[in-house]
Design goal:
The protein is α/β, with parallel strands linked by helices. The chain has 2 domains: 243 residues, Rossmann fold (3-Layer(aba) Sandwich), CATH 3.40.50; 32 residues. The chain has 8 helices and 7 strands, in the order βαβαβαβαβαβααβα. A 7-stranded parallel β-sheet has the order 3-2-1-4-5-6-7, sandwiched between helices. Helix 1 links the parallel strand 1 and strand 2. Helix 1 packs across helix 7, helix 3 runs parallel beside helix 4 and helix 4 runs parallel beside helix 5. The chain is globular and about 70 Å long. The protein starts with 7 loop residues before the first strand and ends in a 7-residue tail after the last helix. The model has no long low-confidence stretch (mean pLDDT 92).
Amino acid sequence: MQNFQGKTAVVTGAGSGIGLGMARTFARNGMNVVLCDIRRDALDDALAQVNRIGAQAIAIEVDTSVRASVDAAAKQAIDAFGKVHVLCNNAGISMHGVPIEKLPLRDWEWVIGVNMYGVIHGFQNFIPHMREHGEESHIVNTASIGGFRIQPGWDTGPYSMSKYAVVALSEALEQDLEGSNIGVSVLCPAAVKTGIFLSGRSRPDRMGGAFKREESEQFAHLLNEGFEPDVIGERVLRAIKHREFFIFTHQWPRELLQERHDRLMQAFDECGKWMEEQGIKPTEG
């Protein structure tokens, strides 16, 4: 996808952080923008910023964990601009600092609802629409570098579980859409200046309402030296142009992922030793 002028992008989690960075980037490149977020106050400010760039834009209050809410947002987006060409399933919450056996059930439901079902609700709504209009389109699902490795000592199990799932969903989606005009990318950022560790402020009433989790917020300072959100927006734009699948934003996690890969290969070596001990041929089974 090379020409963005006059095309339309839908971005969830667009009230701040990476979502707003992508929205501003798309606006600077001549796109119409549909900003979606659960926080009305953040949406109003984000919409004003995008409008100042000169883009045509609307803001829709959406809870991505609720299918009916995403359905309604998709209809508004299509009614407003006719065709949607870029979908960024970006809304996400952190779930750090609490061991998995101690996390309340409602927080499991929340992280799965936003980080996993939010992506599912997004692409199930827009893929049929993109297939119908037939023009070049692209879907970007936001995972994390945490979708490839669990950081020791951070207690990121629930968050990483959900982001591993986004990577798998994206890989499956790429296969399903092969040969179509719809590209797929999975965004895997490391440190970016966002408020993701303040996710508790956005928890809906049906899941217990807004709250403050000290265990998660203790990590917020780690993002202070991260990239600005608009840098990530430009990175995403390049990936769409070049139809990149994995969108990495930093080089330092490469060594960490190599360590995980080496561990996997070592496990296959151990499997080979076991097969040899048992007299099993490698081609059997």
